[in-house]
Design a protein that fits this description.
The chain is α+β, with helices and mostly antiparallel strands. The protein has one domain. The protein is about 25% helix and about 30% strand. The protein has 5 helices and 12 strands. The strands form 5 sheets. It has a 3-stranded antiparallel sheet, covered by helices on one side.
């Protein structure tokens, strides 16, 4: 009986490890030569970095400091973010973000597996971030409609391609101090990060 219980326990642990095993790679954007890390999580393949393609308009470095792009990518309006991903990739939809969170245990706890571990970029307090998914979520902050920048190091804001109405679109928010992934909506003119997922 003990052997059977031990076998079942090991099988469950191995299944869990298989689910979270990272399949990683790289992708080179032919438009500017930038090489992105990629990670396959469940049935989805994501860029494991924020998009850093400089669009002609609707695109800013945090605090207008180009050095921030190296780590956090650009901040985009919704309209620009929708068109900014390279060929073969697209801005993730609300449903794709939801599927990602569900695969990682649900929106109430998935942020721990998505966030970069440690405090190199996240300010304290950081919830128990492990980055076990390999997604490497970073707190790139945002730019508001008035051109002011906020929350670098504290919050990750990413656009969803899903439109809420004529003025607003869905967004994903991940905080430094909580475990949950929040999906809400806001005016399209704000500047948020973009994460591309493979077609």
């Amino acid at each position: 009986m003990k052997n059977k219980s031990l076998f079942l326990t090991m099988a469950v642990l191995l299944a869990g490890m298989t689910l979270l095993a990272q399949v990683t790679g790289t992708f080179t954007d032919s438009r500017d030569g930038k090489v992105y890390k990629t990670v396959t999580i469940g049935a989805q393949t994501w860029m494991a970095e924020n998009l850093a393609f400089k669009a002609k308009s609707g695109c800013w470095a945090y605090n207008n400091d180009a050095d921030n792009v190296k780590t956090y990518g650009y901040l985009y309006t919704w309209e620009t973010a929708k068109k900014a991903c390279p060929a073969g990739w697209h801005l993730a939809s609300k449903d794709e973000w939801s599927a990602l969170a569900t695969f990682l245990g649900g929106q109430e706890s998935a942020a721990e597996k998505l966030k970069e571990a440690g405090t190199n970029h996240w300010m304290k307090p950081v919830s128990a971030a492990t980055n076990s998914s390999g997604f490497t979520c970073l707190p790139g902050g945002f730019r508001n409609e008035n051109g002011d920048f906020y929350n670098l190091g504290l919050m990750c804001f990413c656009w969803c391609s899903t439109e809420q109405d004529s003025k607003q679109a869905n967004q994903v928010i991940i905080y430094s101090h909580t475990k949950h992934v929040e999906i809400s909506y806001i005016e399209k003119s704000n500047g948020f990060s973009a994460r591309c997922v493979k077609d």
